[in-house]
Design brief:
Blueprint (H helix, E strand, L loop, with lengths): L1 E6 L13 E2 L2 E2 H10 L6 E6 L2 H9 L3 E4 L7 H8 L7 E5 L8 H13 L5 E7 L3 H5 L5 E4 L5 E5 L19 E10 H8 L5 H6 L3 H6 L4 E5 L10 H11 L2
Parallel strand pairs: 1-4, 1-6, 4-5, 7-11
Antiparallel strand pairs: 2-3, 6-10, 7-10, 8-9, 8-10
């Protein structure tokens, strides 16, 4: 079981964000330290396109793999990083999630090792407020009775036709961006061109659904928090300092 943290330099809204300091430590260090807390990982790698990130990661004693700078997604970067690595399951741990729960990494690992039906596994948390529901930055997911993902969208799905959701029920789920892939499926995924839904919504998981992937959605209580903008840095530092 291999965990991979993709960390590119050229973030659109916050270039070099992997090295942005949060309470005195670079973002990538927070993520790596949290991932190290997972018990089910046999190996942890950081996949980056920048020497500066790589130097920081190796100084932490974490393995780092240099990858091409032109990958269209973190999944493609991960696929390059694990070439030649013996692993049946690869877990994509987002490089901008400094509060990722090690227990969630382990839970996805358990899903993939205990049930061979799943090509992928990911997570989702309840959406509790209207602002989050309306935000296109928070991806929504709908899944069936056994937890199989049916669709992901930036639009609030499912649509509440009557205008008011039933009280006391969780009606909408926000996608938590962590993925576990079965090795054979990851290889097939990166060889497949983006599908039309993926191109329209800018969501690579729609490519997986388009080619028939069985994706298990694991419910989790906390959505976590990502660092994408300078404003996020202040917000995350406040949470970490607690």
């Amino acid at each position: 079981m291999v965990g991979v943290i993709p960390a590119r330099w050229a973030s659109t809204r916050l270039p070099g964000k992997s090295l942005v300091p949060l309470c005195g430590k670079p973002l990538i260090q927070w993520v790596a330290e949290r991932a190290r807390g997972a018990r089910r990982l046999d190996r942890l790698l950081v996949a980056t396109d920048d020497r500066r990130i790589c130097e920081v990661v190796r100084a932490l004693g974490v393995e780092c793999v240099m990858t091409r700078p032109d990958h269209p997604s973190g999944t493609d970067r991960i696929a390059e990083a694990v070439q030649g690595v013996a692993a049946d399951v690869i877990i994509n741990i987002q490089g901008d999630e400094p509060m990722i729960e090690p227990a969630l990494i382990d839970e996805l690992a358990e899903v993939m090792t205990s049930d061979s039906r799943w090509d992928m596994a990911t997570a989702a948390a309840p959406i509790r407020c209207a602002e989050d529901l309306a935000s296109s930055s928070l991806v929504k997911v709908v899944f069936d009775a056994e937890g199989r993902a049916l669709y992901f969208s930036r639009y609030p799905i499912p649509f509440v036709r009557d205008g008011r959701a039933p009280e006391g029920e969780v009606t909408h789920w926000g996608h938590v961006g962590i993925y576990a892939y079965r090795r054979a499926f990851l290889d097939a995924f990166v060889k497949t061109p983006p599908s039309q839904p993926e191109r329209l919504e800018k969501l690579e998981q729609l490519r997986a659904l388009h080619i028939g992937a069985r994706i298990k959605v694991v419910p989790t209580a906390a959505r976590g928090i990502g660092v994408d903008t300078p404003e996020d840095v202040k917000r995350v530092e406040a949470l970490l300092s607690r």
